[in-house]
Each structure stands twice: as structure tokens, then as C-alpha cells.
């Protein structure tokens, strides 16, 4: 993953739009998000835009269109292949989280498509699950477009303003302090991500333990 992000950081011009859009599309259409979350590519693209390697407006447009198109392909995959897609290798190890996504669809309906756009695992799997549940495509497309617009513009601007803020700090207090502040932010984000993963693991362990207790009960 670090090799991919380092490579992204060296891009400029139309290549930025093409690569970021391709990663966003593949995350939703081909479950590529298990390798590199699309939001990481989008934020990096926003940072590059803040450094004048690309236009933030064209980047946001490319991200939104790629998100909507990728989700639509994911929907068709789920609609035509149904439960078979859930047995594929990338998804086989995440049955508990898939069950959570299916519960979210049953409870929230099409709103789950919008909400899932902002959660990494759900973003990669929700379109296929919506298709497998035979949600009407028109309904799916509406909430998919709303989620893609909010997510695409939001994370592009997040990267853009983060990159601009770093540049201002560097000019004001010097490169060393700017790097130190960036390191603190990265460490905090990493700690938050690890805590979230640990929480998911604990939930999964508790479910397995509860299931085992039910099997052992005469």
C-alpha cells in the first residue's frame, strides 16, 4: 500500500484524474478497496491539487463520476450473480461484516447505500449487496449518486485543504515543525484506525463466543 501511495504522490496533470478515478471505480466494482481504500487515493489527489499538480474541480468531478459508475457496476455484479459473489475469496473472511451490511440494508433500505459510502468496507461491498437484495436500480442510483457526490467532493476538499494548510504552516514556522505536526496527525489517525479495527475484532470474537455458547447449550 505504501508503494502505491508513494507512486500516487509523484503524479501530475491528467494522469492524476485518471489514476484516482480508476482506483475509486475499481474499489466499488472489483472490491479493490481491500488493497487500497478509495478515500486514500482521493485525499492524496486533493493534496496534489493543493500543490498545483491538478485542478481540484476536475478532480472532484472525476471522483464523483467514478464513484457512481463503480457502484453501478458493483450493483449489476450483485444483481446477476447474487449469493455466489459472497463466496469469493476477498469476501469469504468477512462474513460477519457482510451480515452487518445486510442488516443495514434491511433496516435502512436505500439509505444504507448512502451511509455505506462513508464506511470503507461497506463502500466496497454495499453496491453488490444492494443488487443481490434486488433493490430497484432507480432507487439505488439516486442514493448512490447522492452518496458519491457528498463523499467525492468532501474527501477531495479534505485532501486539498489539508495540503494547503501544511504549505501555510511550512511557510510560517518552518519545514521541521510542519513535518512534526504532520507526524502527530498521522500518528493520531493511525491510532484511531487501529482502535476501530480492534473494536470490530472484539465484536466478531464476541459473536463467535455467543454462537459457541448456543451450540453447547443442550
Fold and architecture overview:
The protein has 218 residues and is mostly helical. It has 2 domains: 2-173, no CATH class; 174-218. The protein has 10 helices and no strands.
- The biggest beta sheet, please? none
What percentage of amino acids are in beta strands? under 5%
- Head-to-tail CA distance between termini: 48 Å
Helix content: over 70%
Cα-atom radius of gyration: 19 Å
**In terms of per-residue confidence, which ranges show pLDDT below 50 for 5 or more consecutive residues?**
none
List the defining traits of the structure above.
0% strand, mainly alpha, 2 domains, 10 helices, 83% helix, 218 residues
Summarize it:
This protein is mostly helical. It has 10 helices and no strands. It has 2 domains: 172 residues, no CATH class; 45 residues.
Amino acid at each position: 500500500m505504501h508503494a502505491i501511495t508513494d507512486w500516487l504522490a509523484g503524479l501530475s496533470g491528467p494522469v492524476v484524474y485518471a489514476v484516482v478515478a480508476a482506483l475509486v471505480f475499481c474499489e466499488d466494482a472489483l472490491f479493490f478497496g481491500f488493497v487500497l481504500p478509495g478515500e486514500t487515493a482521493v485525499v492524496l489527489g486533493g493534496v496534489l491539487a493543493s500543490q498545483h499538480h491538478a485542478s481540484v474541480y476536475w478532480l472532484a468531478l472525476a471522483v464523483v463520476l467514478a464513484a457512481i459508475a463503480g457502484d453501478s457496476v458493483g450493483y449489476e455484479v450483485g444483481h446477476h450473480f447474487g449469493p455466489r459473489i459472497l463466496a469469493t475469496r476477498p469476501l469469504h473472511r468477512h462474513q460477519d461484516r457482510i451480515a452487518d451490511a445486510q442488516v443495514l440494508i434491511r433496516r435502512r433500505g436505500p439509505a444504507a447505500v448512502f451511509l455505506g459510502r462513508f464506511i470503507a468496507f461497506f463502500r466496497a461491498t454495499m453496491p453488490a449487496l444492494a443488487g443481490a437484495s434486488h433493490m430497484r436500480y432507480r432507487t439505488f442510483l439516486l442514493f448512490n449518486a447522492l452518496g458519491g457526490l457528498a463523499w467525492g467532493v468532501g474527501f477531495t476538499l479534505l485532501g486539498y485543504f489539508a495540503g494547503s494548510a501544511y504549505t501555510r504552516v511550512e511557510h510560517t514556522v518552518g519545514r521541521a515543525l510542519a513535518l512534526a505536526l504532520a507526524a502527530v496527525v498521522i500518528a493520531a489517525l493511525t491510532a484511531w484506525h487501529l482502535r476501530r479495527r480492534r473494536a470490530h475484532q472484539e465484536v466478531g470474537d464476541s459473536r463467535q463466543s455467543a454462537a459457541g455458547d448456543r451450540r453447547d447449550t443442550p
